[in-house]
Design brief:
five-stranded mixed beta barrel; 6 strands; disordered N terminus; alpha+beta
Length: 158
């Protein structure tokens, strides 16, 4: 029994280590666990996206501040890079969703960065999810180059 208790304490200690930024600050972890030792800054991530073309992808982890979240389910979020471009973040296999009230929170994200052309209808769908006005949605008229990220793990700092 003592061995099981010791093993349980060891596992618990591993899951809430100081290396997990969400637990450090009373935040939460969603999806797969990942190492934050070599996490990129928003500026470094912006440089990485600058090198990507449609069809390219890059496995990476980075940190940024959330600018918007799906108000229906929390099934996507957006972050802004330093020069103002937004990254649309979706969650691998819809295995998890983020809380709908995390705008302005810092997140640590692990997954696949890629670039594609987003069709008008898909842009309008996400604009509706974000709560944009009918006028703002109607103003979307052309496909646009979109920075995307398929996250398999997210840590949210509170």
């Amino acid at each position: 029994m003592a061995i099981l208790l010791a093993a349980g304490n060891f596992i618990f200690a591993q899951n809430v280590s100081a290396e997990d930024p969400a637990h450090e600050n009373g935040g939460i972890s969603l999806g797969e666990k990942f190492d934050i030792q070599n996490i990129l800054s928003p500026y470094q991530m912006e440089l990485k996206y600058g090198d990507l073309k449609p069809g390219d992808s890059l496995q990476v982890a980075f940190t940024a501040e959330v600018t918007s979240v799906c108000k229906n389910k929390g099934c996507w979020m957006k972050i802004a890079l330093p020069a103002g471009e937004e990254v649309m973040i979706k969650f691998k296999d819809y295995a998890f969703f983020v809380p709908k009230d995390i705008e302005s929170h810092t997140v640590f994200i692990n997954g696949l960065a890629y670039v594609e052309e987003m069709p008008v209808e898909e842009q309008k769908h996400y604009a509706e999810d974000a709560g944009l006005s009918p006028e703002e949605i109607a103003a979307i008229k052309e496909p646009k180059k979109t920075l995307l990220f398929l996250a398999d793990g997210v840590n949210i700092k509170k």
